[in-house]
Write a structure and sequence with these properties.
147 residues; alpha+beta; 6-stranded antiparallel sheet; 4 helices; globular
Amino acid sequence: MRVKNLLICFFCVFGTSLFAQTTSLKHYSDELQNFDGWANAVFEESIKGSEYENNADLVIEAISKKLSEKFTPVYKMTKNNMWLCKQALNECETEKGEIYRITCANSEKAIDSIMVYAIIKDNAEFSWCAFSVSFFDLLKNLSANED
């Protein structure tokens, strides 16, 4: 029951803030590695001090299960997108157990992007789940909610 209550709280937070960007996308580029793109990271929630603090994978699994109903899961990210995630997280003062929603795109006005949920682990590492999100997915989900 406690797992269900925690997950409901997570989804309420994620549902209300899923696409409300509080910061704009920032351009990142590394010509030596040929990485380029736009990204931002937004703090969502902390599991620090909760019973899930040492089991981030359980939280990632729950997020993935809920959002895969609406968006296409991404099971393996490109090196460029992983690099963008790290660059966006470097802009934040992250702590172990914090959850961030990261948006990665090829351009600032892209209609397709990758949405990544990352839970910070030790040494700037993170567990993640990701989804391909397009403007058309958003329209489809909005019209489904009206029915």
